[in-house]
Specification:
Blueprint lengths: L1 H15 L1 H36 L3 E6 L2 H6 L10 H13 L3 E7 L1 H12 L16 E6 L5 H8 L5 E6 L1 H43 L1 H9 L4 H36 L4 H4 L8 H5 L2 H24 L2
Antiparallel strand pairs: 1-3, 1-4, 2-3
Subunit structure: Forms a membrane-associated complex with FtsE.
Function: Part of the ABC transporter FtsEX involved in cellular division.
Keywords: Cell cycle, Cell division, Cell membrane, Membrane, Transmembrane, Transmembrane helix
């Protein structure tokens, strides 16, 4: 009987404040969708870091004849065979180095033509203008500075370049976008909490006569509060369900179908469905507990029970 009364009161409360209930559902749905999206964005960035950092190379570019005339780092002339052998031997001795690959001028010219064959500059370049280099795979991509310190400024070395620096700029941009999404999410959560508290107070005010009678007949505080708390929890749960549905639909249309980024950007290792599905219980739990707790603390002051 008591459970039936609580459930009937929940339905009455939701119908009486239909407009505000709808606003609560929408704000909770949007804020939790942003919350889930920011978590997935963090997973995506970490997945991309693990994938790309594992493929990062450090390149030691060697001086050629053209560099000897124009580059201060190559003032002593083009790299000699002895210098190349010594550089290779020193690289092989370093504990941070996993693999060393030599790229000749002809190979560098071939790779350049493959990547930038349509560039006007490509037609004017010759193989002897390209730089020989050592491509170094590190055991730990974070140890780039060890290579830079050992070889930067050395005779025969034009420059030491780390591909990780280029990726860091990309990941910095992605992290910035993620923090912006979190800031909007926090704002939406505040709006949702304010709407929940206001909705609960309006509902309590509209039923102040019933709650007054219940206090007079000795009803417990929890029994009086339960319908209001459940109203907020149900509205929040509906919003959380919509947020989960939005994330599933977004993953389906953006990555798998529709935009089909997984096919168009096959160099990016996108997060799988498991990453999305593991976030859904957290979103649903948050959508249930957040409105219930907000209603509980609002009612303690308002009803004074």
């Amino acid at each position: 009987m008591r459970a039936q009364f609580v459930l009937s009161e929940i339905g009455v409360g939701l119908r009486r404040n239909l407009t505000m209930t709808f606003a609560v559902i929408v704000s909770v749905a949007l804020s939790l969708a942003l919350f889930g999206g920011s978590l997935l964005m963090s997973d995506q960035v970490n997945t991309m870091k693990g994938y790309w950092y594992d493929k990062v190379n450090v390149s030691v570019f060697l001086c050629n004849k053209s560099d000897a005339e124009s580059d201060p780092n190559c003032a002593k002339g083009a790299v000699t065979d002895d210098q190349k052998q010594q550089i290779k031997a020193d690289l092989d001795k370093m504990g941070v180095v996993q693999k060393v690959t030599y790229e000749s001028q002809d190979q560098a010219y071939k790779h350049y033509k493959e990547q930038f064959g349509d560039s006007p500059l490509a037609s004017s370049l010759t193989p002897d203008q390209m730089q020989e280099s050592y491509r170094i795979k590190l055991k730990d991509p974070q140890k780039y500075q060890v290579i830079a310190t050992a070889f930067d400024g050395r005779d025969g070395v034009q420059s030491v370049q780390d591909q990780k620096g280029i990726l860091d700029n990309l990941f910095g941009l992605l992290n910035g976008m993620n923090w912006a999404a979190r800031a909007v999410m926090a704002l939406m959560l505040v709006v949702a909490l304010m709407l929940i508290v206001n909705t609960v107070r309006v509902s309590a005010f509209s039923r102040r006569r019933e709650t007054g009678i219940m206090r007079l007949v000795g009803a417990s505080g929890f029994y009086i509060q339960a319908p209001f708390i459940m109203e907020a929890a149900v509205a929040g749960l509906i919003g959380g369900t919509l947020a989960c549905a939005f994330l599933l639909v977004a993953r389906y249309f953006i990555i798998d179908h529709g935009l089909a980024l997984s096919e168009k950007l096959n160099l990016i290792n996108f997060i799988g469905w498991d990453a999305v599905l593991t976030k859904l219980p957290l979103i649903l739990a948050t959508s249930l507990l957040m409105p219930a707790l907000a209603a509980f603390f609002a009612l303690r002051k308002y009803l004074k029970v």
